[in-house]
Each structure stands twice: as structure tokens, then as C-alpha cells.
Amino acid sequence: MKKYLLIVYKILFKLAGVLLPVNSKLIIFESFHGKQYSDNPRAIFEYINQNYPDYICYWSVNKHYTGVFDDYKDIKQVRRLSLKWLFLMNRANYWVTNSRLPLWITKPKKTVYLQTWHGTPLKRLAADMEEVHMPGTNTEKYKENFIKEASKWDYLISPNDYSSKIFKRAFKFNKSLIETGYPRNDYLINSNDDKIIEKVKSDNNLPQDKKVILYAPTWRDNEFYDKGKYKFQIQLDLKRLQNELGQEYIVLLRMHYLVAEQLDLSEFKGFVYDFSSYEDIRDLYLISDVLITDYSSVFFDYANLKRPMIFYVYDLEIYRDKLRGFYFDFENEAPGPLVKTTDEVIDVIKNLDALEYEQSEEMNEFYNKFCYLEDGNASERVVEQVFR
């Protein structure tokens, strides 16, 4: 949007918030800046759609990602930052999103803003960050803008007591924090079934006779092309993995939504599959036999399945000491081995015992600290507290 048009749009948005009447049954949903139909907003939407069909629900969609929603004919879409979006946002009684909205957006007094957030924090957030290495900002400005946005939230979802304490402090949040578990994890609890797993594999043309490794790393603050577009070079030796594990396993790659990398996996056809643009990681959790990650919060969700996890942390010292820092003793409390080479990854996978892992004291301690609220009913609890 050109600069002068954006100025006009901002003025219109603010005026619309004052002049337009509220529709008490209108809800606007958004996931990861309109790029996905996923996460906590999806879980809440699906629960409302099934149980309270009198609500009018729209999904805010980035114009480059409309194809993600085209398979869902019953979903009402509105293009993010369009005139219709402006109109609907200012008539909506509720906004539901899992990440920050543009800072210039003025929330109408009549609108209830539900921030679901998108993960249990391992790495430091917002006001807790000592240094910010992201493009287009500095430490002071980043914290100031984050806290300004968080002041608009009326409700904030927390998955556990550990997260609640951090969110209140890091976001300077003093409104209604609801500790319900994460709605997105209802699916993992309620759909962990062999028939569903077989169907997901079949729908995505994946072999039924191979075990699945899910590799889901996070992004690095200081490796970027531009604001909001981050680099990521895969440090795993995929050829070594294929040679050593290809008879028994396949690998699914899931890059973070901020990573702009285009992957060329043509030489690994039939072994490595790029699922970075797949609509919702929840299906990938469900069909995976083992997770490889680093500092991504995906492992808190995957822990609900009590399946093996490997932490490939080749840059641990840099990430821990320079980029972010951690909220707990990651090296001693991570629910799985920390490794730094492809050979170590292969060795761990070859010696996996899934049942032994599930019953380990390490896994149970982690589960009881972070997953104790996840019973398949978090969406219901959120809807009853916020919408009913």
C-alpha cells in the first residue's frame, strides 16, 4: 500500500471505529498475520462454528495466501487491509488472533480483543529481552511497540501457570489472563487415532509403511533478508540422513512462518518432504513418530503425545547467550537429548525406544509442568469465558 493511501486508510479505520455500530455476533479471526488457517484461532473458530452457529465468523487473509482457505468452502474470507476488512474489523464485537496486529490499528472501545498467542515460552519475550537483533527496530523501540500493542488486548490465553507468570511480566499485561490450556492442542488429544493418522498420510501422499521424522526449527533473530523475512540454512546433512535412515523413515520439514527460504529438495524425492506451507502443524505432530527441533515452542505441544524428541542445537551458545536467552534450564530440563551434529541425530534415532521414552521420569516431569491442563476441552473453556 502506497504511503499516502496508508495514511488515508489509517484515518478511515479510526473514524469507522467511532461511527460504525457493533454487530454483537461478528467475530474476526486471524492466524500468523493472515497466512494460515491454523493454531488457537482455528480451534476456537471450529468450536464456535460447531456449537454456536448464530455467530458470524470471518477469517482475515493475507492476499498472497488466499489459496490456503480455498479448500474450505464454508469459511468466510476477507482480504486483510481491504476496505471490506476495515468495515468488518470495526463492526466486529470480537477480534481473535495469535500474533500482533499492525501497531497503527486503533481498537474500537466496543470491540473485545482476544489474544491467543502461539506458544509456551522457552526463549525470552518482549520486555524480558535484553537485546533485540531484528531488522527495522532496536531494543527500546521493539519493547515499547510490543507493550503498546499488548495494552489493546482484553483477554490473553495461557497454557499453564509457568506461561502465565511470564506473559504478565513480559507483555506488561494486567487485564484478563485466562489459564485454560491451548485450544490448538484439543486436536492432539481428541484425534490421536490410527485411522485419522492413516487418513492424513493418505491425503498427503505419504507412505504408510515408513516412520515419520518431523523437523521443525525456529528462526534466528539476526539472520534475515528484510523485516519479517528471515533466512534459514538447514544444518542437518539430509544426504547422510537418507543413507542411514531412508529404509525406515521419511522426513517432513516445517520451517517457521517467518522464514522466507525457498527449499530445493529435488535430490531427496521420496525421503524429504517440505510441509512449510501446510495449513496447520497439528496434523504433522499427529503423524510423526519423532520430533527434531531446536528452540521452537513446538516441543511443548508435541509433549502432549509423549513421543520422542531430539534437540538439534548446533548454535546453542550463540542463541542462549547472545540472541535470546532462556526462561528455564533448557540444557537440563529439555525432554530429550541435545545434540550438535548429524551423526549424533542419526545415532539417537537408531537407538530410540518410544515406550521407554513415554514412561521416562524426564518426560513425565515435563508433561506435568507444562501439559497438565491439556485435556481436549480448552476451546470450550475459552469460549465460555470470553464469548458466552
Average pLDDT for all residues: 91
Number of helices: 16
Helical proportion?
25-40%
- Classify the secondary structure makeup into a structural class: alpha/beta
Biggest beta sheet attributes: 7 strands, parallel
Contiguous low-pLDDT stretches (5 residues minimum) are none
**Topology, number of strands:** 15
Main β-sheet, spatial strand arrangement: 3-2-1-4-5-6-7
Shape: globular
How far apart the termini lie comes to: 37 Å
Task: Note the beta-strand portion.
Answer: 15-25%
From the alpha carbons, calculate the radius of gyration and give it in angstroms.
Answer: 21 Å
Written overview of the protein:
With 388 residues, the protein is of the alpha/beta class. It has helices at 3-19, 39-51, 83-91, 139-150, 161-170, 186-190, 194-203, 238-245, 281-287, 298-302, 316-323, 330-333, 342-350, 354-358, 361-370, 378-386; strands at 23-30, 56-61, 76-79, 92-97, 112-115, 155-158, 176-179, 211-215, 224-226, 229-230, 249-253, 272-274, 290-293, 309-312, 338-339. A 7-stranded parallel β-sheet has the order 3-2-1-4-5-6-7, sandwiched between helices. Strands 12-11-8-13-14-15 form a 6-stranded parallel β-sheet, with helices on both faces. Strand 9 (224-226) and strand 10 (229-230) form a beta hairpin. The radius of gyration is 21 Å and the shape is globular. The model has no long low-confidence stretch (mean pLDDT 91).
